[in-house]
Design a protein that fits this description.
The complex is a heterodimer. Chain A is an alpha/beta fold. Chain A has a domain of 93 residues: NADH:ubiquinone oxidoreductase Nqo5 subunit (Beta Polymerase, domain 2), CATH 3.30.460. In chain A, β1 and β2 form a beta hairpin. Chain B has 2 domains: 49 residues, no CATH class; 318 residues, Cytochrome-c3 Hydrogenase, chain B (Orthogonal Bundle). Chain B is 47% helix and 13% strand. Chain B has 16 helices and 10 strands. In chain B, the strands form 4 sheets. Chain B has a 3-stranded antiparallel β-sheet with strand order 1-4-5. In chain B, strands 8-9-10 form a 3-stranded antiparallel β-sheet. The chains are: A alpha/beta, B alpha+beta. At the A-B interface, β3 and α3 of A face α2, α9, β8, β9 and β10 of B.
């Protein structure tokens, strides 16, 4: 499906989503409460079938966090970017690791780097950072570490 | 990372019961992990029940570092991620910056870039072939692979100045023109390696002992490969079409004649065969281009200070290990606001547990060898 066709399809399927087609791919911002059900629609709808999550990341906007999911369908070769805004003080979102298995590892990275709490994640522990890093989130914009220099 | 207490929580540990579970630590310093990767393996007898990777021993927080580097500078750091395909990492970052600034890369630079990419891919696959065979127990291939890889390293040294982390690509083209000897030496290498790759096949591919070690080991179905986000030879061995060079051609790839290698076996042998055949395809690409490098500039004219317009940019390239993605969020300044590198090794590693579970501990090394792990690419 082209970007325009996808846009029409999503206005029909997920009317609450905010669509934006300025960039290379269609961007869709969904509400936090509907995220899990929307993700299931995106994955399982036979005309969409976004089965390949090729990039999962988080962006710290100082006022809030944004989860960014880059999706592709290996059948139809169309792409979609799903965004969800999170509260920066208490970032919580449902896991999608049962929908796309690659999310399990990537969510663990987002958890330790940004402090996003993934609800119902099967194994949410530190993956890259050593013990004792709970509560400090290195990829957030306000992180300062005088010992281990990260900023150049 | 590994917690000291965790090992004690595992059932069976501390009890001298031969039928219970056993936890084995592989790494962080282990020859078959090709770097500092730590695996905690839960065993029942010889059968693997769980493989749990613990990462971070070579984590340098490259993404955070890039946030304080300019759009020219951050490209050099990315060579240190997947050091075996450093050209291709640089290439992906350059494409992303060029996408944001809408720079048209001169044709000559495009051809040089693709040539360098394919030579890097060959060098990477050669190293993989030698190291994978050595993991499985054949020592000779390692020496043969390094003999041929040395020729590519020499070519790189002449043109780029370094042998491993080249930093040759810049936004708008390549840093300098190729060395006058470049064409001659690449042709020599192609003629030499064409004979040698048959020798590789004779030595290892048809070897009964080798085949017994890899056939039917580490099965990964097509659906799981997609779901785990596997790319590159790992996924193509399971029948997934995922070659970015074919699907979303960049530079001059759409004008070239080459095949996307897909095997449907889904086991370690299929992944091995994909890489062996890919080497021949890369050789064919190099042959097609080496006599047809057009004249012209090697770099487009760009401003001294690059400022990406506000927005989000994503570029995808095919490294030797799979799809490498660069996601840049720009606020219109001279440095990126946020950079995410989608590294192929990270997602391929996440499927390791699935592939190894239920198999024997001895097969784990073969599975790891055929994923072709590069740890700095995983940890970033």
């Amino acid at each position: 499906m082209t970007k325009e066709e996808l846009k029409l399809k999503f206005t029909e399927l997920i009317p609450t989503a905010i669509l934006d087609d300025v960039g290379e791919w269609l961007n869709m911002t969904v509400a936090l409460n509907d995220f899990l059900s929307d993700a299931e629609i995106i994955r399982n709808n036979p005309e969409l079938s976004f089965d390949y999550l090729f990039c999962l990341t988080c962006v710290d906007w100082k006022t809030h966090l944004t989860m960014v999911y880059h999706l592709e369908s290996t059948k139809y070769r169309h792409q979609l970017v799903v965004k969800v805004q999170l509260d920066r003080n208490k970032p919580e979102i449902e896991t999608v690791s049962h929908i796309w298995k690659t999310a399990e590892f990537n969510e663990r990275e987002a958890y330790e780097m940004f402090g996003v709490n993934f609800l119902n994640h099967p194994d949410l522990r530190l993956l890259i950072l050593p013990d004792g890093w709970e509560g400090k989130y290195p990829m957030r914009k306000d992180f300062e570490d005088p010992v281990n220099m990260i900023k150049l | 990372m590994y917690r000291e207490t965790e090992i004690l929580k595992q059932p069976g540990i501390g009890e001298p019961d031969v039928f219970g579970d056993m936890v084995i630590n592989v790494g962080p310093q282990h020859p078959s992990t090709h770097g500092v990767l730590h695996l905690v393996i839960t065993l029942n007898g010889e059968t693997i029940k769980k493989v749990e990777p613990h990462l971070g021993y070579i984590h340098r927080s490259i993404e955070k570092m890039c946030e304080s580097l300019s759009f020219r500078q951050f490209i050099y750091v990315t060579s240190k991620m997947d050091y075996l395909s450093s050209h291709i990492n640089n290439h992906g970052c350059c494409l992303c910056v060029e996408k944001g600034l809408q720079i048209e890369v001169p044709h000559r630079a495009q051809v040089i870039r693709v040539l360098m990419d394919e030579l890097t891919r060959l060098a990477s696959h050669q190293l993989w072939w030698g190291a994978a065979a050595m993991d499985i127990g054949a020592l000779t291939p390692f020496f043969l692979a390094f003999r041929e890889r040395e020729m590519i390293n020499d070519i790189m040294e002449e043109t780029c100045g370094t042998r491993l982390t080249m930093n040759y690509m810049v936004p708008g083209g390549v840093m300098v023109d190729v060395h006058p000897n470049f064409q001659k030496r690449v042709k020599e290498f192609v003629a030499h390696f064409k004979r040698k790759i048959d020798e590789y096949d004779e030595l290892l591919t048809g070897n009964v002992i080798f085949q017994n070690r890899v056939k039917g080991v580490g099965y990964l179905s097509k659906e799981d490969a997609i779901s785990y986000g596997c790319t590159g030879p790992t996924a193509r061995g399971s029948g997934v079409s995922c070659d970015i060079r074919k699907l979303y051609p960049y530079e001059v790839y759409n004008k070239l004649q080459f095949d996307e290698i897909i095997e449907t076996g889904g086991d370690c042998l299929a992944r091995y065969l994909v890489r062996m055949k890919e080497m021949r395809q890369s050789l064919s690409i190099v042959e097609q281009l080496i006599d047809n490098i057009p004249e012209g500039d090697v770099q487009a004219k760009t401003k001294a200070v690059l400022k990406l317009p506000k927005g989000e940019y994503y570029s995808r390239v095919e490294t030797a290990r799979g799809e490498f993605g660069v996601y840049i969020v720009s606020e219109g300044g001279t440095t990126p606001y946020r950079i995410k590198f989608r590294s192929p090794g990270y997602c391929n590693l996440s499927a390791l547990d699935h592939m190894a579970r239920g198999g024997k501990i001895g097969d784990l090394v073969a599975i790891m060898a055929m994923i072709d792990l590069v740890i700095p690419d995983i940890d970033r």
